[in-house]
Backbone:
C-alpha cells in the first residue's frame, strides 16, 4: 500500500459519510464503522476494509420506517375512507359508476401488488406490476383528495385520479432511490389489503341473500385469494427493508481491496 497516498480512517466512526467518487486507493478503513456510507464510483484499489462494520445506519433505518409509516397511515386512511363511503352506495345511486371504478382500481392494484411479491422486482412481469400498482395507488389518492376538495365533483375527482396516477408513474420511472421503492411496495400492500376488504364485504352481503348465494361463494374465494396476495405484499415490504443497501460500493473500483473478517451486511458489494 506504500505506493498509494495514505488515507487513515482506521477504527473511526464514519457512519453516513459520503466518499462518492473520491480517490482513496490504499486507504485504511480497518475496524471502522462504515454503516450508511456511500462509496459509489470511488477508487478503492488496495484499500483495507478489514473488520469493518457495514449495513444500515440508525438514520437510514429510521428514514425507511418513517416512509413506511407515512404510506401506511396516509394511503391506508384514504383507502379506508373510499371503502367506507362506497358501502353506502346502491346501484341506483348517481355515484355507483364511480364505486365500481374505484373497486376495480383497487382490485387491479392489489393483483399487481401480489404479482410483484411473487415475481420480484427484477423480472419483466414484476417491473410491469410495480408500475401498475404505483400508478393505481396514486390514482386512488388523487381521486379521493380532489373529490373532497371539490365537494364531490366527479370531473375534478377524475382529474385528480389522472394527476395522481401520472405523478406516481413519474416517481416509479424516474426516482430510483431505495426509499422510494420501499414506499411504493408499502403502497402496493395497502391496496392489496383494501381489495381484500372490498371482496370480503361483497361476499358477506351476497351470502346473506339466497338468490345470489353462488356469487357469494365466488367472492369468498376471491377474497381468500386477495388475502393471500395481501400477506405476500406485506412480507415483500419486510423483505425490501431486510435487503436495503446501507453501505454502497456501487460501481466502485475494489481491485485488491481487503475485506478480511469484515461484517458485510446490507451492502451492494458482490464478494
Residues:
Amino acid at each position: 500500500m506504500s505506493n498509494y497516498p495514505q488515507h487513515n480512517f482506521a477504527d473511526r466512526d464514519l457512519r453516513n459519510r459520503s466518499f462518492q467518487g473520491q480517490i482513496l486507493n490504499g486507504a485504511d478503513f480497518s475496524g471502522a464503522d462504515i454503516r450508511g456510507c456511500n462509496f459509489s464510483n470511488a477508487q478503492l484499489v488496495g484499500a483495507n476494509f478489514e473488520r469493518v462494520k457495514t449495513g444500515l445506519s440508525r438514520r437510514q433505518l429510521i428514514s425507511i420506517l418513517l416512509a413506511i409509516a407515512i404510506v401506511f397511515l396516509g394511503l391506508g386512511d384514504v383507502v379506508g375512507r373510499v371503502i367506507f363511503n362506497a358501502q353506502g352506495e346502491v346501484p341506483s345511486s348517481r355515484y355507483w359508476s364511480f364505486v365500481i371504478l374505484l373497486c376495480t382500481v383497487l382490485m387491479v392494484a392489489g393483483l399487481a401488488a401480489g404479482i410483484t411479491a411473487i415475481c420480484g422486482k427484477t423480472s419483466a412481469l414484476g417491473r410491469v406490476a410495480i408500475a401498475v400498482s404505483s400508478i393505481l395507488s396514486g390514482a386512488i389518492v388523487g381521486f379521493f383528495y380532489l373529490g373532497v376538495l371539490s365537494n364531490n365533483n366527479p370531473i375534478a375527482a377524475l382529474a385528480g385520479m389522472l394527476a395522481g396516477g401520472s405523478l406516481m408513474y413519474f416517481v416509479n420511472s424516474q426516482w430510483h432511490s431505495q426509499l422510494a421503492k420501499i414506499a411504493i411496495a408499502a403502497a402496493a400492500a395497502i391496496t392489496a389489503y383494501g381489495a381484500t376488504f372490498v371482496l370480503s364485504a361483497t361476499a358477506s352481503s351476497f351470502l346473506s341473500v339466497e338468490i345470489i348465494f353462488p356469487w357469494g361463494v365466488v367472492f369468498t374465494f376471491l377474497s381468500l385469494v386477495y388475502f393471500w396476495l395481501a400477506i405476500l405484499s406485506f412480507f415483500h415490504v419486510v423483505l425490501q427493508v431486510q435487503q436495503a443497501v446501507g453501505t454502497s460500493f456501487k460501481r466502485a473500483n475494489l481491485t485488491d481491496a481487503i475485506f478480511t473478517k469484515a461484517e458485510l451486511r446490507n451492502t451492494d458489494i458482490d464478494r
Q: What stands out?
A: The mean pLDDT is 88. Residues 58-242 form one domain.
